[in-house]
Structure prediction request, 438 residues.
Amino acid sequence: MELDLPSASADPAFRRIPPHLLDGFVAHDLPRGCLFATPGDLRNQVLIIESGRLRVYLAGENRELSLSFLEPGDIYTTHTPTYVEAVVTTRVWLMETVAFARKLASDPSVTPVMMRVLGRLLVNAVNLIEDLAFREVPARLARFLTGMAERRGRPLDGGIWLLPLDLGTEDIASLLGSTRQTVSSLLNQWEREGILQRQGRRVFYIYQLDTLRRLGTPI
Amino acid sequence: MELDLPSASADPAFRRIPPHLLDGFVAHDLPRGCLFATPGDLRNQVLIIESGRLRVYLAGENRELSLSFLEPGDIYTTHTPTYVEAVVTTRVWLMETVAFARKLASDPSVTPVMMRVLGRLLVNAVNLIEDLAFREVPARLARFLTGMAERRGRPLDGGIWLLPLDLGTEDIASLLGSTRQTVSSLLNQWEREGILQRQGRRVFYIYQLDTLRRLGTPI
DNA sequence: GAAAAACTGTCGGCCAGCCGACGGACCTCG
DNA sequence: CGAGGTCCGTCGGCTGGCCGACAGTTTTTC
Prediction:
């Protein structure tokens, strides 16, 4: 087995991974559309994304629910009953969980990293449960947009936020547990109301972040 | 600080906890109804239940969603945004997560235990997400009952299953993300149809486990 | 043992939003 | 640059189930 090395031009988020953490991992290139994991898989693996994007999702009969999009620097473990698909060509570093358990035993510095990874996955899962159980789709969408604005957005003059978001309407609907018709309808209504504006599929301008916050927090 | 010891008559599931795992934990007795944790809590703790029962739940405006009922032997960590309430008088063993992190660093044998705990919580959370997103209440209830029958039930003669279940209708509804009216209506319909029978609030007799399995798996 | 509290069963109005369908717009590929 | 593929916008029928209300039953407390 040939041991690959991270390329020097790797994504900064991936380069922040402590080098010793990658010891024992093996690089794999996944073509776009590749279904990397399914719920019935018996092999559990730990994976770290170097480049590209993976979508983790659950499948219903007529639609899918995306739990997350994994990006460079993200760590994930596939023991949950989910599908994992490469949205674009993606390079990941993999280790079977059995081998990873040995790594944990021999290198205690890895433990806090993994506890944080699992903890974050758990918090995200609980937040999604809360959304699905208690919030209607408009509130979910508003919360999603305000959360992304706070994480990825850039404030411009006059209280306007620029939000680069490489997600289509169907992607957003999938993350919220809704349908593209419902999300499309809401986005267009909010555009007509002057709350936001869509520019192509990659950029939102948010004119009324406060209004979105209010929409995300029903009284 | 007085160090308590587990009583000799403790629940077998609790007594299966490795003794060294309890090192550093402190016993607390929580009265019935005690709200032990809320989403805003800044203190994150690891807890192990010796006796009693805790309910972990999310709160909406008009109802609650119970994520789980914790019982003797269960380990939980409160860093997710949930409420934790003592359903009956409950004795738990507690440690702050900061101290627990030091324990993990100094005693690597604890790591696999905690990885399994977090992993199980994650799998349960993902299963609930799948239910909420894709399954209607009858399917959720059927899956709940068949799952509990397989875990806690006892087969009797003639294909009948005895399922001791110390949960009221409202408890079951809360676990499924539904309302007591909906669950009550379904249980009574299934009783009229001869699929099951409720005996008091603590015991189900399941006459048609196959039918329940089918109801839990929509085509 | 009675009163109070808690839980359950039932009913029906109401509505959020899913989903199939269709046409248009945009993007990709050859 | 055109064809094909993919995505988006809109529409409206339909339905699952929430929830307020009320009465009855069971359990708990004193």
